[in-house]
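FORM 12-B: Structure-to-Sequence Request
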C-alpha cells in the first residue's frame, strides 16, 4: 500500500513538472522580440479653408496649411532596416520617422504599400538591427498564448498577453477607395490588450516568431474593449517580399466569383457537400476555367488547406503570385476532383506588374 502511494505521488510530481515545463515564459519571449518593434511618427500637411468674420459677414480668405502628426508601430523584419507596418499608419505621410527601442530616432522612406491588405514597408538606414523572424500563421491554434507588442497612446515598447480567440475573421474594415482589387481580410483575433498606436505592431507566439501584424481594434473609440485583430504572417510575409522586390504586390487570381455554401444551399443544389465555395460565375479565360473548372463546382481545398469562406480563399490565394501552379480540390456532381491551376494576375497574364 505504501509503495502504491509512493508511486502515485511520484507520478503526480512528474505530471506537475511536465505542466510547469509547458508553461510559456513570456519574459524570454518579450526579451527576444521587444527590440524588433519600433515607434513610427508621421507628419502630413493639409490645406484647409480660412474664414474671417467681417461686419457679420463670413469671408473666405483662401487656404491655410496645417501640419498634422500621427503615430503607430512597426516591426523590423531585416537586420538592415526594412520595417513592416500598416498602410493606414503611413499612407498620407510626407515625413516618416522611426524611434527604436534604444531611443535612436531615424528618418524613414516608404518602400511600397498595399491598401488591399493594409500593409506597407518602410526603410531606415541602419545595420545589425534586432528583427523578428516570420512564423507560420497556418500552424496557429485557437487558444494558443500570444504577445502583442507596440506603442499604444504614444508609449514605447508595451507588451500585453492573450490568446488566439479565432482565425479567418472578415471584419469589412479595410478600405480600398478607387482600387480594382478587393480587400483581403482573414484576421487572427486575439484578446491581448491593444489600443490606439498599436497598429503595425507585432503579434508573436511562444517561440518568439512573428505570426501577425496588429491592424485593428473592435472598438468604437479606438480603445481596447476585448478583441483585436492581426494580419496573418504568411500573408504579410508575401506582401512584404513583393513590396521590397517590386514596389507592388503581385496578386494572383482564380478568376471566379463564389458563394459560401450553406446546408440549405447544398440541399437545394442536391449536393452532399455542405461546406465549401460554390462557383457562381467565372471568367472564361481565367485561371480556373483554363484548368477545366466550371460554374457549379464547389471548391473545398487550396494547396491542401480547407476553404469554406471567402476570407479563407483570399488569404490562401494572397500567398501566391501569378504563374504559380497550385492544387485545387473541388466537388462536381458529388464527386471529388483535383486540378492543377496556373494562377493569373488581374490582367489575365503571368507577367510582373509594376506601378
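FORM 12-B RESPONSE
SEQUENCE OUT:
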Amino acid at each position: 500500500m505504501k509503495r502504491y502511494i509512493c508511486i502515485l505521488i511520484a507520478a503526480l510530481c512528474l505530471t506537475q513538472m511536465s505542466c510547469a515545463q509547458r508553461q510559456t515564459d513570456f519574459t524570454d519571449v518579450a526579451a527576444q522580440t521587444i527590440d524588433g518593434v519600433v515607434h513610427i511618427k508621421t507628419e502630413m500637411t493639409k490645406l484647409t479653408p480660412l474664414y474671417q468674420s467681417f461686419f457679420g459677414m463670413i469671408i473666405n480668405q483662401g487656404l491655410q496649411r496645417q501640419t498634422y502628426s500621427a503615430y503607430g508601430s512597426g516591426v523590423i523584419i531585416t537586420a538592415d532596416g526594412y520595417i513592416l507596418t500598416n498602410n493606414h499608419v503611413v499612407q498620407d505621410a510626407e515625413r516618416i520617422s522611426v524611434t527604436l527601442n534604444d531611443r535612436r530616432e531615424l528618418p524613414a522612406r516608404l518602400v511600397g504599400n498595399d491598401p488591399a491588405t493594409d500593409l506597407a514597408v518602410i526603410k531606415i538606414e541602419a545595420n545589425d538591427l534586432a528583427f523578428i523572424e516570420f512564423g507560420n500563421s497556418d500552424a496557429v491554434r485557437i487558444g494558443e498564448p500570444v504577445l502583442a507588442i507596440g506603442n499604444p497612446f504614444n508609449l514605447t515598447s508595451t507588451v500585453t498577453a492573450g490568446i488566439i480567440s479565432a482565425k479567418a475573421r472578415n471584419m469589412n474594415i479595410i478600405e480600398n477607395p478607387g482600387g480594382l482589387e478587393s480587400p483581403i481580410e482573414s484576421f487572427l483575433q486575439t484578446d491581448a490588450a491593444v489600443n490606439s498606436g498599436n497598429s503595425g505592431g507585432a503579434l508573436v507566439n511562444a517561440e518568439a516568431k512573428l505570426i501577425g501584424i496588429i491592424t485593428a481594434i473592435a472598438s468604437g473609440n479606438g480603445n481596447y474593449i476585448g478583441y483585436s485583430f492581426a494580419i496573418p504572417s504568411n500573408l504579410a510575409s508575401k506582401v512584404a517580399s513583393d513590396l521590397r522586390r517590386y514596389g507592388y504586390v503581385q496578386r494572383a487570381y482564380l478568376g471566379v466569383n463564389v458563394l459560401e455554401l450553406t446546408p440549405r444551399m447544398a440541399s437545394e443544389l442536391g449536393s452532399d457537400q455542405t461546406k465549401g465555395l460554390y462557383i457562381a460565375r467565372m471568367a472564361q479565360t481565367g485561371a480556373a476555367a483554363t484548368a477545366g473548372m466550371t460554374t457549379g463546382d464547389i471548391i473545398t481545398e487550396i494547396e491542401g488547406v480547407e476553404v469554406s469562406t471567402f476570407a479563407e480563399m483570399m488569404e490562401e490565394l494572397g500567398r501566391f503570385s501569378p504563374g504559380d501552379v497550385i492544387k485545387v480540390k473541388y466537388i462536381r456532381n458529388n464527386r471529388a476532383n483535383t486540378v492543377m491551376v496556373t494562377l493569373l494576375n488581374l490582367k489575365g497574364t503571368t507577367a510582373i506588374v509594376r506601378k
